[in-house]
């Protein structure tokens, strides 16, 4: 009798675990209109490609940070970019995060190409309702309120 109760309890627990792990969640994933997601990694912050670029402007639109920049190249189609957060939150008022725009540019042309790319930044939110984002390779800052 005890063995039958144990098997029954084990089966119920197993079914609960399977249904919790494998349930179909019909809720849509949060949508974003940004081009890329901001990476948070102290290692990438230090090691990601750092080819020369000039940041012209930054603007926050909802949860997207739009960065306009230029670099030398042929057409910019092969450029690889990423926005990387250093993983450090400085305790100031408002709190501050350091980011770096990484560019990998293998184009060997003398033209100056300008681009604007947007990055999802909701993963940079901290306690409170705002954070100051500082771009290390430009010194520019943007106040992100949420």
Low-confidence stretches: 2-30
Tally of DSSP helical segments = 2
Proportion of strand residues: 35-45%
Number of strands: 9
Fraction of residues in helix: 10-25%
Order of helices and strands: HEEHEEEEEEE
Major sheet attributes: 5 strands, mixed
Distance between the termini: 59 Å
Class by SSE composition: alpha/beta
Chain-averaged pLDDT: 84
Radius of gyration: 22 Å
The strand line-up of the biggest sheet is 2-5-6-8-9
> How would you describe the shape?
globular
Short description:
By secondary structure, the protein is α/β, with parallel strands linked by helices. Helix content is 18%, strand content 43%. It has helices at 2-22, 42-47, and strands at residues 36-37, 39-40, 54-61, 64-73, 80-90, 96-104, 111-120, 130-135, 141-145.
Give the key terms.
146 residues, alpha/beta, 2 helices, 43% strand, globular
Question: Would you write up a description of this structure?
Answer:
- The structure is a single chain.
- The chain is 18% helix and 43% strand.
- It is of the alpha/beta class.
- The strands form two sheets. It has a five-stranded mixed sheet. The chain has a four-stranded mixed sheet with strand order 1-7-4-3, with no helix packed on it.
- The longest helix has 21 residues, at 2-22.
- It starts with a helix and ends with a strand.
């Amino acid at each position: 009798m005890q063995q039958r109760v144990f098997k029954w309890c084990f089966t119920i627990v197993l079914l609960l675990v399977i249904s919790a792990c494998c349930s179909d969640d019909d809720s849509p994933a949060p949508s974003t209109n940004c081009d890329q997601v901001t990476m948070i990694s102290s290692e990438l912050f230090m090691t990601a490609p750092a080819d020369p670029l000039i940041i012209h402007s930054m603007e926050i639109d909802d949860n997207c940070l739009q960065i306009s920049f230029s670099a030398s190249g042929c057409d910019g189609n092969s450029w690889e970019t990423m926005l990387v957060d250093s993983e450090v939150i400085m305790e100031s008022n408002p709190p501050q995060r350091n980011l770096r725009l990484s560019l990998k540019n293998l184009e060997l042309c003398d033209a100056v190409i300008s681009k604007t790319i947007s990055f999802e930044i909701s993963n940079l939110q901290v306690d409170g309702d705002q954070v100051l984002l500082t771009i290390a390779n430009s010194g520019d800052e943007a106040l992100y309120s949420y």
